[in-house]
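User: I'm new to structure prediction. If I give you an amino acid sequence, what do you actually give back? Let's try with this one:
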Amino acid sequence: MISILSPLNGTVMTLSEVPDPVFAQGLVGPGLALQPSGDGEVTAVAPVAGRIVKLHPHAFVIQADGVGVLVHLGIDTVQLEGEGFTLLAEEGAEVSAGDGLVRWNPARIVEGGRSAVCPIIILDTAPDNLGNITAAGQSVNSGDQLFTVA
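Assistant: Good question. You get back a string of structure tokens that encode the predicted 3D arrangement of the chain. For your 150 residues, that looks like this:
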């Protein structure tokens, strides 16, 4: 069983609450979302130990013990072409849970007319493989357990 930790401080949301139909309908995979909390710059950290298989300014995927974990920083943020995001790691790097990967400012994303909501998705698994799921509405800190994957 793998623990998936929160990549940032925020409030837990169900995927169905994400303002993007692809994530909201679970088409990418099962998981949760976070509404980031706090002002100013935020560092998104690795939710698991593993290897960074994809690293974009707005999203990253870590492969850990047969499970891929996608963290997407905001909705439609790919359109920003990296503006407002600072990469703190490199694709292919081995990381520990809690290592800083991307620095960004969720408030600036909102000011630009986009949502700062961050889906945390488990790739290539069924929803019933998730357990110990943190309830929507709960506040979490970076590094707190969000759920487990069997």
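You can read the tokens as a compact description of the fold. Here is one thing that stands out. The first strand starts at residue 2 and ends at 5.
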